[in-house]
Amino acid sequence: MKVMIRRDAAGALSAYVPKKDLEEPIVSMDNPDMWGGVVTLANGWRLELPAMAADTRLPLTVDARRLGE
């Protein structure tokens, strides 16, 4: 699924899923640089993000896979 990852003015990360019109903060990351790991959203969704360089600029739309469906 397409997911837009962005960082707000305070530095907090969030994920927006356009197909569901859902925007949730990212509350935890399995991988410190986020890319190539699993992130957990505030609503409990777990998303597997593709591997990318640690210095990838945000906002960015990626293909993520929802885990635990």
UniProtKB/TrEMBL annotation:
Xref: Pfam families: NifT
Superkingdom of the organism of origin: Bacteria
GO biological process: nitrogen fixation
Database matches in Gene3D superfamilies: NifT/FixU-like
Name of the protein in its database record: Putative nitrogen fixation protein NifT
Gene source species: Candidatus Macondimonas diazotrophica
